[in-house]
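Sample entry as discussed:
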Amino acid sequence: MSKKEGGVKSKAKSKAKSKTSSKIKKKAKKVRKVKENVIVLGAHSDDFVLGAGATIAKYVKEGKKVTCIIFSYGEMSHPWLKEEEVQKMRIEEAHQAAKVLGCKTIFFDLKEGKFSNETNGEKTVKKILNIIKKKNPTKIFTHSIEDPHPDHQAVNKITLEAYDQIEDKLKPEVYVYSVWNPVEFKTRAPALLVDVGNNFNKKIEAMKKFESQKVHTLYPRLISFFRDIKTGIRIRKKFAEKFYRVR
């Protein structure tokens, strides 16, 4: 073999290696671009913040995509105002809070107190299933069944109904959060304690966006604040949010 032929073959091998290396890098970039999806379900426009606000902010900071599904506008909170006015106000507040946390919101436009009737329940389960198929989440957060609010209990039941219909290979982990219940008596599932010391300020900032709910949610806000302090002490952190894995 001549020196010239050897040089040509060496260059060809070098180019082939370079192309292979380039393809591998491109594939690796594509893999890195696939972000983990998380879904948070809430009955009313501020529940996702009260129950999991700081965790949402933390997940977003880590590069996860968080979608918050809100079942109703919560128009019954201001019965003296026109329904359209309350809806517009609550939507804007939720969007502003979501902007602070870095998540996206989807409204289902269900009437309060009527989540679980036969028609609404079936339609809502289908909607949730479609979103799950599209997002393929690794985690789902929903209301605790121990929460005394009937709408919160309904969201829990609908979430688990939808979960039971998910293909086994797509089944995510399901966690519950508390809003109106200060303690849990019946839930004995494994607990997920999330250190949110660096993200708690985002939760407070997001809560402040719900100007219309200052009086209505004073009690659950106080519960949330003290619960997050107590959970933080448990893991020797400043603040932490607690969830129970039920599936």
Q: What stands out?
A: Strands lie at 37-42, 65-70, 104-107, 139-143, 173-177, 191-195, 240-245. The longest helix spans residues 3-33. The longest strand covers residues 37-42. The helical segments are 3-33, 47-61, 83-101, 118-135, 150-164, 200-207, 218-234.
